[in-house]
């Protein structure tokens, strides 16, 4: 089973004047903490709502300090359950984001993406085209192509770097 896990992070930022500035600094701060180890984690601005249901900016600023709500999304593969996926995501992200509160807000099962676009393998999708192209060739032409490929695979035939320069 594979899952997409979304984790909310409350990122503190300092010396900011506007909400946009706080959001940019928050995304940059999280990006630095996650990269290069977790460069596959997507960083998005979070959503906040007031008790009345009114949509709010993802950043709150008071006294030139802010708190930014960010959503960190990652895919977790080969897991046993949704709970297992949330634990793996929290652990992976949490190890790199020390002192930043995290909360899992969504776990969604995803289809396996190892095959072609609509569940077809590469051979199912493109195999007929290649078979037709090779079907027009005679046996001796196929053997000649095979010999050329074998020649390309030999490392001895490649020139040395010093010879090229």
From TrEMBL:
It comes from the Archaea. Belongs to the UPF0212 family. Residues 111-165 are annotated as: Disordered. This is UPF0212 protein EGH25_06615. Transmembrane segments: none annotated.
């Amino acid at each position: 089973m594979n899952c997409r896990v979304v984790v909310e992070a409350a990122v503190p930022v300092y010396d900011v004047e506007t909400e946009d500035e706080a959001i940019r600094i928050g995304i940059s701060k999280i990006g630095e903490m996650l990269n290069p180890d977790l460069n596959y984690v997507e960083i998005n601005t979070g959503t906040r709502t007031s008790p009345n249901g009114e949509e709010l900016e993802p950043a709150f600023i008071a006294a030139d300090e802010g708190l930014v709500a960010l959503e960190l999304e990652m895919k977790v593969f080969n897991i046993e359950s949704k709970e297992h996926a949330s634990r793996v995501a929290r652990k992976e992200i949490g190890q790199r984001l020390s002192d930043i509160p995290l909360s899992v807000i969504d776990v969604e099962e995803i289809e396996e993406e190892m095959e072609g676009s609509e569940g077809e393998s590469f051979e199912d999708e493109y195999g007929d085209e290649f078979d037709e192209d090779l079907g027009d060739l005679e046996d001796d032409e196929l053997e000649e192509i095979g010999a050329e490929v074998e020649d390309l695979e030999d490392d001895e035939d490649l020139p040395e770097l010093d010879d090229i320069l």
